[in-house]
Design a protein that fits this description.
- By secondary structure, this protein is of the alpha/beta class.
- It folds into 2 domains: about 5-60, Winged helix-like DNA-binding domain superfamily/Winged helix DNA-binding domain (Arc Repressor Mutant, subunit A, Orthogonal Bundle), CATH 1.10.10; about 70-250, Rossmann fold.
- It is about 40% helix and about 20% strand.
- It contains 10 helices and 15 strands.
- The strands form 4 sheets. It has a 7-stranded parallel sheet with strand order 6-5-4-9-12-14-15, sandwiched between helices. The chain has a 3-stranded antiparallel sheet with strand order 1-3-2.
Length: about 250
């Protein structure tokens, strides 16, 4: 007997939780339905933000991000390259908003070679990294997160609204052609949108490990950013999406 749509959806979601990717062919064989039916089921679930529809199947949407201590050890060399790209763009004397995260921290370390920067950040580790070399460091106050040494919430957004900077460096939870720039937390997404809006030249910084991933909250102002600094060239599909947004992709090459 062919399962009802609700049964198929439940089976598909269970399969996605067990494995990062599952193909249309495998699901069709398991459920004894056509590939067109499976594509329709996946599309329906993707519209509810329950999974990510990709070519040939579906992948899981991550609900939480790895701890900062883990992320710092992922693609360490790539993040250093991204930091050097950023340092090549931002001139001495500029004002820079720096988001929290492992890649933005790598960029902050590269920026310590610059002179007379004015820094605005919600990340305490970034602030401590920059304080000896920058002309001024403003820490955006607010609720301190438990898992990361960064602030968030209404008070942080209100303080940020008082400033305008030459550049902003924005991290991201996931980046895919299907769902764009996404994050795991609504407050963090709001903060990142506000940092984009507060800078003349917003830059996304993201290593290739974020490519093809989707989190649960979409950034609304991603199309207002000027650049994406990353360590390798995106796939053709992702590169096409970024071009449509008007973002220039900067890589070490």
């Amino acid at each position: 007997m062919i399962p009802l749509p609700e049964e198929r959806h439940s089976i598909i979601l269970s399969a996605i939780e067990a494995r990062e990717f599952i193909s249309i062919v495998e699901l069709g064989d398991r459920l004894n339905v056509s590939r067109e039916t499976i594509r329709s089921d996946i599309s329906h679930l993707a519209k509810q933000n329950l999974l990510q529809q990709v070519r040939g199947g579906a992948t899981r949407i991550e609900k939480t991000e790895a701890a900062m201590s883990e992320r710092q050890n992922i693609n360490h060399a790539g993040k250093q390259k991204i930091g050097q790209i950023v340092a090549g763009i931002i001139p001495d004397g500029a004002s820079v908003i720096i988001d929290s995260g492992s890649t933005t921290l790598a960029a902050a370390r590269a920026l310590t070679e610059k002179n007379d920067l004015t820094i605005y950040t919600n990340d305490l580790t970034v602030a401590l990294t920059m304080v000896a070399s920058a002309a001024e460091v403003q820490v955006l106050g607010g609720k301190l997160g438990r898992s990361e040494h960064s602030t968030r919430g209404h008070d942080t957004l209100e303080m940020l609204s008082n400033y305008r900077a030459d550049f902003s460096l924005i991290g991201v939870g996931g980046l895919s052609a299907e769902h764009g720039f996404t994050d795991y937390d609504r407050d963090v997404a709001k903060m990142r949108d506000a940092m984009i809006a507060a800078a003349a030249t917003p830059l996304f910084v993201a290593g290739h490990e974020k490519f093809g991933k989707s989190a649960s909250v979409r950034l609304r102002l991603a199309d207002q950013a000027a650049f994406l600094a990353t360590d390798i060239q995106p796939t053709t599909e992702l590169a096409t999406y970024l071009k449509q947004l008007g973002l220039d992709v900067l890589t070490p090459e």
